[in-house]
Write a structure and sequence with these properties.
The chain has a single domain, classed as 2-Layer Sandwich (60s Ribosomal Protein L30, Chain: A), CATH 3.30.1330. It is built from two helices and six strands. It is globular, with a radius of gyration of 14 Å.
Length: 130
Protein backbone atom coordinates (compact mmCIF):
# COMPACT_ATOMS: atom_id res chain seq x y z
CA UNK A 1 0.00 0.00 0.00
CA UNK A 2 1.14 3.53 -0.72
CA UNK A 3 2.18 5.79 2.12
CA UNK A 4 -0.74 7.82 3.43
CA UNK A 5 -0.52 11.57 2.95
CA UNK A 6 -2.45 13.91 5.22
CA UNK A 7 -3.58 17.39 4.23
CA UNK A 8 -5.34 20.21 6.03
CA UNK A 9 -7.16 22.87 4.12
CA UNK A 10 -6.72 26.45 5.29
CA UNK A 11 -10.08 27.12 3.62
CA UNK A 12 -11.78 24.54 5.83
CA UNK A 13 -12.42 24.36 9.52
CA UNK A 14 -8.96 23.23 10.75
CA UNK A 15 -9.44 21.10 13.85
CA UNK A 16 -6.41 19.71 15.64
CA UNK A 17 -7.76 16.18 15.92
CA UNK A 18 -8.42 15.42 12.26
CA UNK A 19 -7.01 15.72 8.77
CA UNK A 20 -9.32 17.18 6.15
CA UNK A 21 -7.99 14.70 3.65
CA UNK A 22 -6.01 11.49 3.60
CA UNK A 23 -4.68 10.05 0.37
CA UNK A 24 -3.43 6.56 -0.40
CA UNK A 25 -2.04 7.67 -3.78
CA UNK A 26 -5.16 6.69 -5.72
CA UNK A 27 -7.96 8.29 -3.76
CA UNK A 28 -8.40 11.24 -1.41
CA UNK A 29 -10.68 10.53 1.55
CA UNK A 30 -12.19 13.80 2.75
CA UNK A 31 -13.45 14.38 6.27
CA UNK A 32 -16.97 15.62 6.86
CA UNK A 33 -17.46 19.36 6.64
CA UNK A 34 -19.92 21.39 8.70
CA UNK A 35 -21.16 24.95 8.26
CA UNK A 36 -18.35 26.55 10.26
CA UNK A 37 -15.49 28.92 9.61
CA UNK A 38 -11.77 28.34 10.24
CA UNK A 39 -12.11 29.21 13.92
CA UNK A 40 -14.94 26.74 14.40
CA UNK A 41 -17.64 29.39 14.64
CA UNK A 42 -21.05 28.51 13.28
CA UNK A 43 -22.17 30.24 10.07
CA UNK A 44 -25.59 30.26 8.45
CA UNK A 45 -27.08 27.84 10.92
CA UNK A 46 -30.79 27.28 10.47
CA UNK A 47 -30.98 27.69 6.68
CA UNK A 48 -30.36 24.46 4.76
CA UNK A 49 -29.45 26.28 1.54
CA UNK A 50 -26.86 28.50 3.27
CA UNK A 51 -25.41 25.59 5.24
CA UNK A 52 -25.17 23.38 2.15
CA UNK A 53 -23.37 26.14 0.24
CA UNK A 54 -20.86 26.65 3.10
CA UNK A 55 -20.29 22.91 3.51
CA UNK A 56 -19.70 22.42 -0.22
CA UNK A 57 -17.30 25.39 -0.34
CA UNK A 58 -15.34 23.91 2.59
CA UNK A 59 -15.31 20.50 0.89
CA UNK A 60 -13.97 22.28 -2.21
CA UNK A 61 -11.13 23.70 -0.08
CA UNK A 62 -10.22 20.20 1.06
CA UNK A 63 -10.33 18.97 -2.57
CA UNK A 64 -8.08 21.85 -3.66
CA UNK A 65 -5.37 20.67 -1.26
CA UNK A 66 -5.00 17.66 -3.56
CA UNK A 67 -5.28 19.69 -6.76
CA UNK A 68 -8.82 18.42 -7.29
CA UNK A 69 -12.25 19.85 -7.90
CA UNK A 70 -15.85 18.78 -7.43
CA UNK A 71 -15.78 16.76 -10.66
CA UNK A 72 -13.18 14.46 -9.11
CA UNK A 73 -15.54 13.32 -6.35
CA UNK A 74 -16.68 9.74 -6.87
CA UNK A 75 -18.67 9.34 -3.64
CA UNK A 76 -20.21 11.56 -0.98
CA UNK A 77 -22.03 10.85 2.25
CA UNK A 78 -24.56 13.43 3.38
CA UNK A 79 -25.86 13.58 6.93
CA UNK A 80 -28.92 15.77 7.52
CA UNK A 81 -30.98 16.43 10.62
CA UNK A 82 -34.21 16.80 8.60
CA UNK A 83 -34.76 14.92 5.33
CA UNK A 84 -37.84 17.02 4.66
CA UNK A 85 -35.29 19.61 3.46
CA UNK A 86 -33.77 17.19 0.94
CA UNK A 87 -35.13 18.92 -2.18
CA UNK A 88 -33.84 22.33 -1.04
CA UNK A 89 -30.43 20.83 -0.19
CA UNK A 90 -30.28 19.03 -3.55
CA UNK A 91 -30.81 22.27 -5.48
CA UNK A 92 -27.70 23.83 -3.92
CA UNK A 93 -25.64 20.59 -3.96
CA UNK A 94 -26.32 19.96 -7.66
CA UNK A 95 -25.14 23.47 -8.57
CA UNK A 96 -21.55 22.64 -7.55
CA UNK A 97 -21.22 20.04 -10.33
CA UNK A 98 -22.33 22.07 -13.34
CA UNK A 99 -23.33 19.78 -16.18
CA UNK A 100 -21.16 16.91 -14.90
CA UNK A 101 -22.80 13.93 -13.24
CA UNK A 102 -22.92 14.04 -9.45
CA UNK A 103 -20.97 11.43 -7.49
CA UNK A 104 -22.53 8.29 -6.04
CA UNK A 105 -23.88 9.14 -2.61
CA UNK A 106 -25.72 8.17 0.51
CA UNK A 107 -27.98 10.61 2.32
CA UNK A 108 -29.24 9.78 5.80
CA UNK A 109 -31.08 11.54 8.58
CA UNK A 110 -29.25 11.83 11.91
CA UNK A 111 -30.40 12.97 15.35
CA UNK A 112 -27.85 15.77 15.57
CA UNK A 113 -24.58 17.22 14.32
CA UNK A 114 -21.68 18.98 16.02
CA UNK A 115 -22.44 22.66 16.56
CA UNK A 116 -26.16 22.29 15.91
CA UNK A 117 -25.90 22.35 12.13
CA UNK A 118 -28.34 20.79 9.70
CA UNK A 119 -25.89 19.10 7.30
CA UNK A 120 -22.46 17.47 7.09
CA UNK A 121 -20.87 16.12 3.90
CA UNK A 122 -17.76 13.96 3.44
CA UNK A 123 -16.36 12.52 0.24
CA UNK A 124 -13.99 10.31 -1.70
CA UNK A 125 -12.24 11.68 -4.78
CA UNK A 126 -10.11 9.90 -7.35
CA UNK A 127 -6.67 11.45 -7.74
CA UNK A 128 -5.73 12.52 -11.24
CA UNK A 129 -2.93 10.77 -13.08
CA UNK A 130 0.14 12.95 -12.87
Amino acid sequence: MSELRFRNSPAANALDYLSHGVSDGRYAFLSGQLAADKTGGAKGLGDIEAETRIVMELLGGALAEFGLGYGDLVRTNIYMTDLRELDRMNEVYRGFFGSAPTPARTCVQVAGLIGGGKIEIDGIARLRDR
